[in-house]
Amino acid sequence: MQKKCSVIILAGGKSERMNFPKSYMSIDGKTFIEKIIETYLAFGITEIIAVMNKDFCEGKWEKYLRKISSKIMIIKNTNSESGRFHSLKLGLQNLSENMDCFVQPVDNPFVNEEILNLLWESKKNVGFVSPVFGTKGGHPILLSKTMINEIETIEDADINLKEIFKPFLKHKVMMKDGLVLRNINTPEDYDQFVNKNL
User: Which fold has domain 6-195?
Assistant: First the structure.
């Protein structure tokens, strides 16, 4: 069943610690971005926007996007040094209409339909919904339409997303495992969480 909701995949960084674009790392025989897209399509998302580092959208990387580009809108981030808030704003500026929006980092390819459904069932008219395991918040998060409108008025700055979100009401949804906390940022992370299937 289709849900009136969008997702912005944040993939605008340089992947310097990984030394390879995280979007194109492999898990379960698919690239991270493919797996994430398939999960959201199965969930019934209305719109998928991927904000990607310009250097990983052009030239030799285009072949990796051919089979998925028809399913998503790709926004090129030409200023990857500006951080995730800049990428988020680029994505929000390209939403086709005002609707709730998931924010999904590309370095967490472990998202599944169960996680998305739990967050969707807990959506609110204000603030955002965050998955929590133990005492820590994870990803993805679900922004309300009201919060999106407020974020769009904030000046672009190199500020951590957590700092941007601090003033907003956070609705916590407890999760049964730590999948929502896992991020693949280094070869060691990849070996631990993907190669060893931990």
Answer: Spore Coat Polysaccharide Biosynthesis Protein SpsA; Chain A (3.90.550)
